[in-house]
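As promised in the previous annual report, we have extended the structural survey to additional targets. Below is the entry for DUF4440 domain-containing protein.
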Amino acid sequence: MGQPRDLMNRATEAVLTGDLAALRDIYAPDVVATTPDEGELHGIDRFIEWNQSFVGSFTDREYVPLLEHETADCAIDQGDFVGTNTEPMTLPDGQTVPPTGKQVRVRAADVATVRDGRIVRHDFYFDQLDLLVQLGLMEAPAGTTTT
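The corresponding structure token record, generated without further manual editing, is:
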């Protein structure tokens, strides 16, 4: 296992356990993250804020890996995020949604780029529509299925 894979695994564990100190050790202070819901985020504080707002709204969180790939400076994961929405969730427009109590299983992929022993860029991909449908906040468009 190379450094990118080790850092990605540590980042995933820190996110799932809510270990903010570990996130600060793993990510560069000027990290850039891209997210489906809030676009490009700059800096570790903004990344942690987003992370707490989204991931923190789910308990019994787990990540079920399906594919893992590594290059000299990147780690790439595909898997399912599973959790129960038991805390309020803040949407990108600032609106707060009360907990639904629903369990979700959302397919996700992410790419972490490493330089000088830290993650300097992290790109997250997941289907927002699928998430909202599973939470009961939207109806699935006709002819579509969710995870």
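The chain has one domain: 3-134. Residues 3-17 form the longest helix (15 residues). These points will be discussed at the next consortium meeting with the crystallography subgroup.
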